[in-house]
């Protein structure tokens, strides 16, 4: 570990150097002024010559004093976690307060006492070492989460464009990983299965559950097309896997699953505790309201299927609650506002519709506070 000693007194520099070297410190760098320290640290050039684990800084120095130097060093992102111990003969608490306000970690009074110096230096270096280990681990976790995010997004359904229907989606997690998920597939020549779900919570646990549910959903929709049966199977899975014998919090998700039948011009859907889907026909907006409680809340779920007849052209919007839940505004108000924005953007294709809605949301809120997922379905 490198220790930088900054003091305009040669005697003080030599004393500190000797005491630290005697204790076993191998790399000790001396600077006779704040300007020399600045040069060594690369504060002006951005090209440091050393990477200290600790800085011992005298307060009273000509030109730039130790407090000013400490402030300049701490203003550099590179050194925000580098501890600075001020070494001073000043006993006035005002100077110590200024030093701590500038970012100093600790202080040592002159004349220097060997035991005190070595104890404070050892404690500070140990703390710095632990901090470095934590930062390294956090970086490793961040890299792992970034990979996990790419994996999660790689399984999302790709845009679908056929002669009678087109689908696209937008997916904006509030953290690296999200509990929101969507899936669609063509069931046969005339029917399409479309699902959107929102796992309770955020982050790693929610994303893992969403991936597990998505895998099951892929298998279920391949075997079962009836919306009620699909939701019942998902509920059985959630209850047995996460809630049946668990003393932890209940894991559940909201879901809207629909089958679009182009031959019959009918939507068959189940809404398990999810925000209502929106449908635009003849400039009027209709809602696909809830028909069941969220999935996983109970061992058995009482599911009701609703039917909605449509005539082209029809636009459908499915979304998670992150798009309509805002501080100071009710969900009802959020849905009403979303309905208006949906109408304003409906002339575009599904990608343009989702982009327009998100653009308006970000302009209004400026910050993503919850996972957001929305699906635009256009039936020309």
From TrEMBL:
Residue numbers bearing the 4-aspartylphosphate modification: 58
Entries under Pfam families matching the protein: Response_reg, SpoIIE
Keywords recorded for this protein, A-Z: Hydrolase, Phosphoprotein
Top-level taxon of origin: Bacteria
Molecular function GO labels: phosphatase activity
Record-annotated Response regulatory domain positions: 2-125
GO-annotated biological processes: phosphorelay signal transduction system
InterPro entries named in the record: Bact_Sigma-Reg, CheY-like_superfamily, PPM-type-like_dom_sf, PPM-type_phosphatase-like_dom, Sig_transdc_resp-reg_receiver
UniProt KW Hydrolase keyword: yes
Name by which UniProt lists this protein: Response regulator
Species name: Effusibacillus lacus
